[in-house]
Amino acid sequence: MTVEVPAEDAEWMVGQAGLSGVVSVQPLPGGWDNPNFRLDLDDGRSLVLKIWKAQKSLDDVQTVIQRHSWIDEHGVPTATPMMLDSGRRFAVRNGVAWTLLPYVPGGHLGSDRASLESLGATMARLHEVPETDCFPRDFRMGWSLFERMNELADESGERTEFLVALREGGRLRGQIPDDLPEGILHGDLFPDNVIGDGEVAAILDLEEAWVGPRAFDLVMAFVGFGWDGGWPVQERWDALVSGYESVRSLTDSERAALTTLHRYATLSIAAWRYWKHVMSEPDEALEDRYLEMVDRLEIELDFMGSFD
C-alpha cells in the first residue's frame, strides 16, 4: 500500500526537532514494512523520515532504536534516529511512531568487489559488538515464523505446495550445529538495507537483528547481494568472504555449515515474502515474489568449493 506524507505532516515532524522549512518530500526505495521519505529543507540539509507502520507497539520501536544506538556506539556505521525536543527519538502521529534520521548520501550499496569486501568487513565488526538485551535470540523470519505459518495453515486447511515444503524445511534445524560462534546479526542484509558507494556508509533497518550464528549473516548477505539473473556469482561470494576474513576468520565448523545456513537464509526470505504478500497482506502484484527464492532452493551450492 502506497503511503503519502502531506507537506504539513512533514513540517510538523521536523518541528519536533526544532527545525522548519520543508521544501520537498520524496519517497525512498525499499522499506517494505516501514516507508522512508527524504525531506529537503530550505537551509540545504536533508533528513529521512521513517514511519514505523509495522511495529506492534511503541516499545518495539524503542527497542529497534536502541539497537541502532548500541552498534553506533561500538563503531558500526548506521543511521540512528535524532533526539527530538521531547527528549525521545520518536514522535507519535495518528498512533504510529515517526523518526527523523540523518540522510546518508550514496544510494544502495552495489555488488562490485570493493563494495562487497567493505560489506564483509563491516559485518565482521558488527559480529564483534558485545551482546545486549535489545537483541533477541529469535530470528523473526526464521523458525518461529515457519511455525506460525504452519499453525495458521492447519487452522484454515490451506496446504499449498510451498507450505508443505516449508514444513519439511524444518528438518534443516537439526542440521545446524548448536555450537557455532554467535554474535549480533543484522539478519536482512539486502541492498536496500545498506547505503554506500564503493564502501559501506551505513547499515540500516535493524528490525530483524538478532543474536545467532555469525556465519548466518554472511550467507544472508550472499542471498541479498550474490545472485544475478537467477544464478549465484562466485566472485561476489569470494569478495564477501575476503572482506569478512580481513577482520575475523571463519572457523572450520562455520565453513562446514555454510551450505545449510544458506539454505535456511533462502527459505527464510521465501517464507517472509509468502507470509507478507500471500497470507498477511494479500497482493496480486507481489504474491509471486517468494518464487524467486523457491527457485534458488533448487540450485545446489557447495560453499566449501566452487559453485561451478
TrEMBL record:
InterPro entries: Aminoglycoside_PTrfase (IPR002575), Kinase-like_dom_sf (IPR011009), Pseudomonas-type_ThrB (IPR050249). GO terms for molecular function: amino acid kinase activity. Pfam families: APH. Residues 25-248 form the Aminoglycoside phosphotransferase domain. Belongs to the pseudomonas-type ThrB family. This is Aminoglycoside phosphotransferase domain-containing protein.
